Amino acid sequence: MEFFQRAKAVRLRSHHDKYLHAEDDEESVNQERNGSSKNAKWIVELIPEYDNIIRLKSCYNKYLTASNQPLLLGVTGRKVVQTMPRRLDSSVEWEPIRDGAQVKLKTRYGNFLRANGGLPPWRNSVTHDIPHRSSTQDWILWDVDVLEIQIGNPTPPPIPHSDSLDFESSTPSSPSLHSHRFSRQESTDSVGSPPKMEGRTIYYHVAEDNGDVDDENVQGYSLVFNGNDVEQLTRKFAEETGLDGVIVCSRSPLNGKLYPLRLHLPPNNVTMQVVLVLPSSKVAKEFEEQGLL
């Protein structure tokens, strides 16, 4: 909590060296490299009745909100968005928990503000969740850059408090960007040439609930996989995309239907195109009924 005690405005830098960013649609929240943008600045509101709870307000005068909307079908993470509730409730309240030189932001219901990595559509998204894999534990850690110091005792606006989720839009505003920086300079977005990797290139799409794929003729996203084992490939997709329990499928050249891959991939590291099916989808249930899983 000491990170925010005297802070009037902050920016939050994720484990991926990107900043918590309020999108221009005044609703979405994601991660961006540009920490100098007004969209990366968050106004801190302390709550008088609590000594360990804060609210964060975007440059559009909307609160960082832990919504109940899933980011993707079958994925546990819920969307973090910008809202202006008619009555403030617990969805806009965050508890800072210090972890060394960094901080975790916990919702009133035990989830943590999480900066997602991996491949699209997971990359750069922000959710609230509890990380279960050791490889994603750092995704809930944030560096706090203090941009403005609060002089005197801060008081939040007199908006009544309620636990009802009743949101309405508000007129955006653009606060001043005079900043006092007390942390390291923001990183640049320079990208070096990655080392050459052995293995096969696998292009993939994520299927809709019924198995349909938008723009399947387009090349899609890709990863490099070194091996032939389908189970290892499934784990690789989980690590890279954050989608747990996906079913790796191919499309039959005879009837165009999806079928789960079994045992081994084709030899000689040939390039492949696959479709990822979410375990809670309608087509996954059809696979179970047909005895394909």
UniProtKB/TrEMBL annotation:
Domain of life according to the entry: Eukaryota
Location of the region described as Disordered in the Swiss-Prot/TrEMBL record: 152-197
One Pfam family matching this protein: DUF569
Residue ranges of every copy of the DUF569 domain listed in the record: 1-142, 199-276
Low complexity compositional bias, start-end: 167-177
InterPro entries, sorted: Actin-crosslinking, DUF569, Ubiq_DUF569-assoc
PANTHER family: ACTIN CROSS-LINKING PROTEIN (DUF569) (PTHR31205)
UniProt-recorded name of the protein: Uncharacterized protein LOC101501956
